[in-house]
Structures are given as C-alpha cells and as structure tokens.
Amino acid sequence: MANREAPVSESKLQNPHLTSWVDELARLCKPDRVHWCDGSEGERQRLTALAVSSGVLLPLDPAQYPNSFLHRSNPNDVARSEQLTFICSKNQADAGPTNNWMSPAEAYAKLGKLFDGSMRGRTLYVIPYVMGPPGSEFAKVGVELTDSVYVALSMRLMTRMGSEALEALGSSADFNHGLHCTGDLSPERRFICHFPEDNAVWSFGSGYGGNALLGKKCLALRIASYLGRREGWLAEHMLILGAEDPEGRTTYVAAAFPSACGKTNFAMMVPPARFKGWKLWTVGDDIAWLHVRPDGKLWAVNPERGYFGVAPGTSLKSNPNAMKSVSHDALFTNVAMTKEGGVWWEGMDGDPPDELIDWQGRPWKKGSPEKAAQPNSRFTVAASNNPACSPHLDDPHGVPISALIFGGRRSSTVPLVLQSFNWAHGVFLGATMASETTAAAGGKLGELRRDPMAMRPFCGYNVGDYMQHWLDMQRRMVAPPKIFQVNWFRRDKEGALLWPGYGENMRVLKWIIDRVAGTLNARETPFGWVPHPGQLDLTGLDIAPERVEQAMAVRDDELRADLESLAPFFADLGDRLPEALSFQRHLLLSRAR
Ligand code: SAT
Ligand code: MN
Question: What is the pLDDT at residue 12?
C-alpha cells in the first residue's frame, strides 16, 4: 500500500486558510480525533472496516457483490428535506420565492449552537475534494468536514477526493467550506443551510444523500448556480449523454429532469436493436456545468465522478448498464437484502424472493403490502463502473452540447417531444416546466408543481434572476444549442403510460439529433415544432401507432389552460420575472387563439 500520508500533511501545512478553518471548526465541534482523508485505497479499506465494525455498513456476499456494502439510514431520514433546506443570502429577496430563507447571522448562530460539542466521542473527517475534471479551468475545490464515515466513503466514489484535491487547491483560500454533522437525526434539529456569499454550507441532523454529501446538490448545484451567474456560466440539474452514430459522429445532449424521473436511465440508455451500430456514452447522470468556450459553443463538464442513482425500477430490462455498474464496488442505501447477502428492490428482474430483509432490517415475505426497498433507495458507484462511461468524463474542456432537453413527469398536456422556436422560447419551456412530485424529496407524491429547469430545489439564488441569466447566456454564444421539451410520462384515460420509455427513448433522441443536424423537417404548431405523424422511427416497437400519436398529440385547449395556469407562478416572481418570459407567454396565448 502506497503511503500517501506524507503529501497530505505537506500540502495542508502549505495552506494556512485551510488549517485555520479546520482548527476553528474542530474547536467548535470538539471531536475526539481529526482524520485528513487522502483518498487512497488503503484508507478506503481502513474506513470500510471501521464502518463494518460499527454497523454503519453491512457487507454483502463477496461472491455476488465483490467489495459492496449496504447502508441503512434512519427511517425518518430517507430523502432530501426541502422544507429544512435554506438559502442564507444577506437579502431575503436574493433567495427568491422558491427557496426557504434564513439570515446568515441567524443561521450561523442557530447551527453554531447545534454544532457546539456535536462531535464529542466521534471522528471529524476532513474531506478535500474536486468537482470537475482534473486540471480543468472549470473545476471547483470543496472541503467537507463531517463526522460520518458513510459520507467519507461515498464522497470518495462521487468526487475526486483526497490528496489530488489538496494539490489542486494549493495555497488558495478559494474553496467551498462545508460542515456536516449527523447529530441525533431528529427532524427538529435538521437544517441544511447554504451561504452563497461565503461559499459555505452547514448541514446538521441528516445522514442522507443530498443533505450530507455536500459536493453534490449543495456545492455543485446551489452554490455553483450562484457562482455561475456571477462568473457567466450555468450549473444545471442535467445528465450529459453522447450519441455516436454508425459513422462515428457523436452528438452530445444535456437533459434536465426532476429527481427520480429517469435521468440515470436516460444517461445510461442502451439503444434498441433497430439502432444497430449506434453507441451511447454517459458523461454524467445528474449535474452539468455549462460554459461557453472561445469557439462560441456551449460545453459541458460533469462535476461528479460517480452516480447516486435510484434503485427501485432499475433492472436488466430498464437499465442494463446500471445493473453492470452496481455488480461490484457499490454502496447501497436502504435497499432490501436477500438471505444470501445479495440486494433486491421493487422492479428488479424476476420474481421477488420468498423472503427478504427489508430496508429497515425487518423480515419481509413475498406478497407483503409493504415495499421491501425504500422507494428512494439508492446505489452509489464510481462512473468508471459503467461500461458506457464516456472517455470524455475526465476531459478538462468537457463535451460540446448540440441540444438541451427539458423533461417533466406529466400525465397529460405535454407531448412526447417538442422543439422550441428559438432560444427565448426554449428558456420559457424550461422555466415553466412542471412535474408531478416523486419520492426523492420529502413531501406529498404526485402533485403538480412548477420546477424551472428541474432546478426548483437546487437554485441557490432568486429563480427570476436565474431565468434572466439563462436568457442572457444566448448573447455569449455563436452557436447556441437547440432546445427541446420531452415527456415520457403521458398517460391515457385509464391511467396507463402511452410511451414505453427506457431504451425506446432512443427513438425520440434520434429525432432530436436529426433536427439538430438539420436533416429532418418538422410540423409547426402554435407551441413549437413536433414530429410529423409517422415520422418517428417505430420499427421493431410493439405498440399501436395510435398510442404513439396520442403521446405526441398537441392539444390547443390543454396547452392554453397550462399557459393560463402560469399566472400565479409568474406573479410570485414579482419584479424579478424577466419581461421576455412574460412576452413569450402572451405570444403563445395569442398564437393559440
Ligand atoms: O438525495 S439527492 O439529492 O442526492 C438525489 C436527488 O434527489 O436527486
Ligand atoms: Mn438529481
């Protein structure tokens, strides 16, 4: 085992900003020990052994799932807690109507009390990490202080963690200051507070995913979106996918969907047999940082290097690349366990086993009305486990984006695919996108809510200013990507899905690629461009063409009602609503009369 302790201590001594900040917070939290993570394999083994001996991780059967473990979080702590997530900007108006706000002074005081002495008897892990490709001018450094060994091990899979991050930081003070403590997991003492103006995040009282792995939603979306506006780029809740045609040309798209709407499945999609010779490459499954490069095009990097994917529904049929990815070196959270020490969740291939141990560690029998796996249960794996991982994941420039796609979960109204007339109309489609709520956020399921660019829970500043920033980005680009809207989730009157989704979404992607290449005409409707009837390639798809037509239908009355229903949402934005979006709404309404 290589000894990587030495470079760590050398670089940390070189950075007085970092050491004095760690000292200060260690004095506040009062841990028994401070461990600086170096990211080495030896360290992973030591921390894993510790996590197993303390019951934080359960080893899975090494024959079936080599090097893989199960973690069970507290049953009251199984999703992001949006109601306990705060943007602590100096001015309340800068947090906007979609965020909870607390003043920085109040937040530091309130959480300071909770953190005081909170790590007694525990170890404080110092986790330096980089979001973004190594050596990229677009990368950002963060340091997370946490008392959770699960967080330390997860951060090692999800980010570039350890010595390489300290080297990237050098003596700079420019890093995200993250502080996390699991606390007693009482929801009354749970707060996830973001301080965009200080480049800091304080999170107390949750050990779950986006609440606790501070590089992901906290830094790479909430704080980064704020930095992106200041610095002229975009941090987005988007997957990044490359589609290589049989001639070897690759078209890259970035697509925004709310949490648990199939981003990981789309990002890892395997095309149906009809698309022989096509290869799809995953660059990212959750987050894209988009910058305009000197060629005037929009380029995307994935700040992460792992996936935190939804387990239920993942199967060899729905996502074979994900199943291969989780077959070794995986951390599972809140899934069910088989008697043989394998994992199981609803929607996995084959019949459920007769008996399981459910996500809370209780015996479970086939036919039980309770779910064996928590609906928001997850797998965490390195992106390099994915057989379709793009060779450009580590490319410092990222990949050039030809199309941006917005997709909500809508049982009605929104057609399978629609292309915007222009950039401003595309921004309107993204900004007004709506979705039925899922299990990824604590709260009610299936309610329709406006979720601008799928960023509602993740925009670190006023969402009206965010929409304006999107509109302004056009002026920086010579060749902006084309913008599309998709909806995989439209249903018939009986409530059955009209479109099969998963790999078949390749058929919609192909239409998008042809539109971008300019090789296909389309049908103009008052709301945008849609495929001509019969234009979508349905070869080999066993589904009645009428159902596909139903999925693609643009109904003036439904769309008009949707535009009308935007009024209160726009009114909430007050004077921060960009005029251009208000104009778009009136333009579309007048076209639809
Ligand atoms: O729990 S996370 O926020 O990391 C995942 C998600 O909701 O998208
Ligand atoms: Mn997400």
Answer: 60
